[in-house]
Amino acid sequence: MKIGFIGLGNMGGPMAANLARAGHEVTGFDMADVAIDGVAMAASGAEAATGADVVITMLPNGQILRAVADQVLPVMAAGATLVDCSTVDVESARAVAGQAAEKALLFVDAPVSGGIGGAAGGTLTFMAGGSADAFAVADPLFDVMGQKAVHCGAAGAGQSAKICNNMILGVTMVATCEAFALADKLGLDRQKMFDVVSTSSGYSWTMNAYCPAPGVGPQSPADNDYQPGFAAELMLKDLRLSQQAAESADADTPMGQLAQALYAQFVENEGGQGMDFSAMLPRFEKRSRS
Ligand code: NAD
């Protein structure tokens, strides 16, 4: 298949390389000067998209996605498919889907879970929104870049699933970290705390698979001085998207709102930028109730 790939950063670079390795003809474009194994580089997004059966985007945010869509949709051949794998706001995904439909193009919003390791290893999970026809075109490519793809519904449903999942993740990480900090102050051994909670009703992915306490549970960024992993500022981005969506859908999400405020404080005022999102634990450790 002829694929145009726009946005070859930490995630997009290895995803494009995996598609090329699987035998697809991949032409890439990035604002930055990058070279990706097996990928021919174009001079612009429009050039990468010209003649492609599928154009994939992996970009920082919705504003940039809309700008790139304005460049590539006019040059895409009728019947071609745009697959956006970035994490963006639901409204941008729906707006680009509408623009694509006007030009008789297919569109899938397909944000991912699995991080940089999943992108490199081809083990991402894709959450997809769009028509059944559009999903059918993209699904074999999801198979190359990932291990699971869920067709969540119409355009925007992939982004909706992603931000709901990450709102749970952010809230749960905060709860896990504050519980560890409380346990410390109560004189409870961290390993005992893990042994109990990981096999009791407080268990969660953040406790069992990504424990924020160093030396406890499976290997996690806590064991590597809280180097990401999943950076706190990316969690803040996703929590902001969840609250933007909650605002527009008039949904009451007090825990998501509080998690957003805590991550904003941590990233913007407390040195959390560049640290893993589980570094909320040392943040809570240093604090008292007042
Ligand atoms: P990144 O900053 O490493 O990559 C983004 C790339 O887009 C950069 O190389 C940048 O130069 C390029 N770019 C920006 N504007 C462009 C334009 N107009 N035209 C062409 N290229 C342009 O970010 P990333 O970590 O690869 O993340 C990409 C997306 O994936 C984001 O939406 C992020 O939220 C999401 N995501 C990231 C992770 C992660 O762990 N990094 C996990 C899941 C989802």
From TrEMBL:
Q: Which reaction does it catalyse?
A: 3-hydroxy-2-methylpropanoate + NAD(+) = 2-methyl-3-oxopropanoate + NADH + H(+)
Q: Name one GO biological process term.
A: L-valine catabolic process
Its annotated pathway? Amino-acid degradation; L-valine degradation
Domain spans labelled 3-hydroxyisobutyrate dehydrogenase-like NAD-binding: 156-281
Q: Which SUPFAM superfamilies match?
A: 6-phosphogluconate dehydrogenase C-terminal domain-like (SSF48179), NAD(P)-binding Rossmann-fold domains (SSF51735)
- Annotated 6-phosphogluconate dehydrogenase NADP-binding domain ranges read 2-153
Which family is this sequence assigned to?
Answer: Belongs to the HIBADH-related family.
Specify the protein name.
3-hydroxyisobutyrate dehydrogenase
